[in-house]
Design a protein that fits this description.
CATH class of the largest domain: Alpha Beta
Radius of gyration: 19 Å
Strand content: 5-15%
Bound molecules: aspartic acid
Number of helices: 12
Number of strands: 9
CATH architecture of the largest domain: 3-Layer(aba) Sandwich
Structural class: alpha/beta
CATH topology of the largest domain: Rossmann fold
Oligomer: single chain
Number of domains: 2
Helix content: 25-40%
Amino acid sequence: MAQTSTTPIRHLLEVGQFDRPGIEHLFAEADRMRDLPRSAAPLAGLILATLFYEPSTRTRLSFESAMLRLGGNIISTENAREFSSAIKGETVEDTIRIVNGYADAIVIRHYEQGAAHRAAEVSGVPILNAGDGPGEHPSQALLDLYTIGHELGRIDNLRVALIGDLRYGRTARSLARLLRLTEGTELVFVSPPAVPMGADIRAELAEAGVPFRDDPDLDAVLPNVDVVYQTRVQKERFASTEEYESAKGQYVTDAEAMRRLNPGAILMHPLPRVDEITTAVDADPRAAYFRQAHNGVFIRMALLNELLADGSTTGR
Ligand code: ASP
């Protein structure tokens, strides 16, 4: 995998590591993974550890499925906050040092922004950031852009609406950053006032020359975009239930909203959904979120294969 077109990546920490040739290569590899025979086992004998300090369904299981499909093995702690030595006061750094002795790569999800970077600093094996608090979720953004390419046949000249909790939603933050690598993209932020897109991402977009604007009127946005990316209001990040209640439920995509949506557009969501997309919408062919989740396996196979297959990081 290319971090830039010339420098190989050692860890997957944030989408800022990628350039355009790097994502094109990764997406071509993900396409190849779709048809990889189960008998091909490029990662046979290798072990992936999944270390999750926050809940997960798709990310953990799809990384594990990806490793198993590549012929590798997995070890896992799905509730590391409670059931690992973290509860006894062990630091992330110490845990990573220990797991370095047990695995050839480590997927980590943690509640603190920057935790994956801290892990990478002490790790001799690749670290893959599976979500660091309200920071980033790079493998999700990669599978999101890959899905856009598959659904619409292009990753350039897109009008993308990011809806919902853009302050704490790490998937929307990572996707906005990744879209800097596309041409002719316009972003619209549709968020409750309490959870706007962060100033850090806005500054990066401005510097990259990607046009963006805020528009609280979802009805007006829907007919004029190619991608609607809905997100959940991140309940676990709010200081109080009152604050969460004031932000939630403001933007709901229902059958009526789908009538407004451009016929050629797609509706995405990193999942899980709570109430922001009604189940009545699921049968609409533009509802891409389940296909999006399935694509995660192929992107994660491509990522693991690139990090581990040639043995360069593991000394095989
Ligand atoms: N599953 C995604 C994440 O871990 C989205 C979400 O939880 O809302 O960030």
